[in-house]
Design a protein that fits this description.
The chain is of the alpha/beta class. Helix content is 45%, strand content 12%.
Length: 617
Amino acid sequence: MSLQDAPLAGVFPPGNEEGWRKIVDRALKGASFDRLISKTYDGVEISPLYPRATAPGPRALRAAAGRWSILARVDVSGPDAANALALGDLEGGADGLHIVFAGAQGAYGTGLADDGEEALAHVFDKIRFDYGIPALVEFSPAAPKAADALLRILDRAHIEPSITRLSFGLDPLGAKALHGFSPAPWGEESKSFAARAKSLASAGYRFGTVAADARVIHAAGGTEAQELGFALAAALAYLRALEAGGVALDEARALLAFRLAADADEFVTIAKFRALRRLFARVEEACGLAPAPIFVHAETAWRMMTRRDPWTNLLRATLASFGAAIGGADAVTVLPFTQALGAPDDFARRLARDTQLVLQDESHIYAVDDPASGSGGMEALTEALCERGWAEFQSLEAEGGLAAALEKGSFQGRVAEVAGKRAQNVARSRDKITGSNAFPDIGEAPVATLAPFDAALAEAPAPAGALKSPPLRPRRLAEPFETLRERSDAAAAKGARPRIFLANLGAVAVFTARANFAKNFFEAGGIEALFGDEGADVAAGFRASGAKLACICSSDAIYAEKAEQAARDLAAAGARVYLAGRPGELEAALRAAGVAEFIYAGGDMFDTLQRACEEAG
C-alpha cells in the first residue's frame, strides 16, 4: 500500500510554500518576514523553510562506516591520578584517549605538566596501545621532551608502531597561532617539522602524524569560515613541507588528520564538519590527488563552557557532540561539564563518556552515513560554509600562506573583529548563555573538581630568539558575567550580596513578567533581587530590604498611572532607581522623577550591571 492509498492520505491537503507563507503572514501580524531569517557571524542567512535539496545523495563521511570513537581526556597533572582516571575511562566505555600536555591547544586549565620519561611511564602504565585504541596526543612547546619520552616508553614495551593508533599530531602552525611565537621562520621550521614527521612515519607511526587543528580559531571567537580556512591552509602548508622533505604527496596526505571544535549550534556544527570534507577534497583535486576519506577529530567547544551553573554545560555538550557525530566526525572528545572550574573528577568524566554512549547505543545516530543529506536547509548551509571557508582559505594563500598571515597578524585581526562583535552580543544578551546572561542561579551549590583551574597550564614560554606574532587567546564567552558573579560571591562571604528591591506595582498578574525579567537581569551580575509585595508601600518595602538599588516593575499602563510617583518615593528613600521596560514617551518625566536607568531586552546588559554592582557596593 502506498502513502496515497492509506485511509488518512486524503484527510490533510498537500502543503505548499504559498499556503505556509499565508499562515506565517497572519502570525507575523504585519511584521516583516525578514525577522524570521537569522544570520551567522559569517553572514550566512538561515531561513525558516527550504525546498527539498537537489544535491547528490548521501556521501560516506567516516573512513570506517559505523560508530565514531569516544575519546576521554588524559589531562590531570599528577601522573598516578592521570593513569587511574584514564584506565577508569577505558573500562567505563571510552574507546580511546585524548592526551593533552600543558601548553597545548586543549590545555584548558589542565594538562600533563611533567614531560619526563619516568612520569609518563606512570601515566601510561597498563594502557595497551598495542590493542589499537585511538590515542590522540597534543604536544606543546611547554613539554619539549614528551614525544621522545613516549617513543622510548613504547620501544621499551616492544610495541610494534604499525599496530598502534597513536597520533602524534604535529602542529607547529597551530602552536604559533595559540602562543604567538615560533622558534624560527617557517622556511626553516618547516624542514625540521617535515623531518620529524618523516621519521615517525618511517618508524610506523602513520596514524594522524600531522594535525591541522583549528580549535584555537573557534576558542578565540572566530567564525566557522575562519576555522575552515585555517584548517585548510594549515593542511596545505604541511603537505608542501612534507613533499619538500621527500615525502610523496599521496603518502603525506595519508599522514594528515584534522581537528575542529563542535558548538552547541548543532546545525552550524553539522554543516561545518560536512563542509570540511568537501573543501579538502577540492584541495586534493587541485594537488592532483584522488580524494580519500580524512580523519576528523571533534572536541566540544571551550568558548561555550561556563563556570556558573555548570550543569548547563551538559546540555551544550550533548548538542555539540550530536552535531559532530551527524556531521561525520571520526572521533569525539566531550569536555567534562566542570572543565572550566578545574580538573574534572571521575563523575564529571563519566557524564562526558555517557553523553556519547547514549547517542550511540540508544539513539543509534551512527547507523546512517550522512543523515543531513537531502535536507534543504542543511545542504544550503553546508554549501554556504564551503563558499565562505574557501574564500578565507584563498585570502590566507594570497597573503603567502598561513605562516606569513600569522606573522603579519592580519588573520588574527579578522578573528579579533568577529570576537568583538560576539562579545558585544553576549553583553547585550542577544547571544544567550543559560546560567550566565540568561536564567542565572544565584544560589547554586558548588561543584567538586580534583584541582582548581590553573591558567598557567595553558601557557608556553617563548624560547630566546623566537619570532613573535599576535597570539590568538582562547576565551569563554561567559567570562565577563562570571567576573561580576565572583565579586558578588566575595561580598556574600563577608556578609551579604549586593541587592536590588523590585518595586512591583499593581496586581501579581500585571507585574510578574517584568519582575521576573528584572530578577534574571540583575542576578546575572550577582545582584540578589528581592520582590516587593503586591500593593505594598514601595518606599517602606525598599527601606526594609536593606538594598541600595530599586527597580520598578509593572505594565506600560500602570507605568503611565503610577511610575512617576513610585520613582519619587524611592528616590526620596535613597534608592538608585531603575525601571524594567522601554519608557517610550514617558522617559523625560520618569527621569525627572528619579529613574536613573531603564533595563530592557537588547540593551547593554553587562555595562548596566557593572555600574549597578558599583552602586550596590
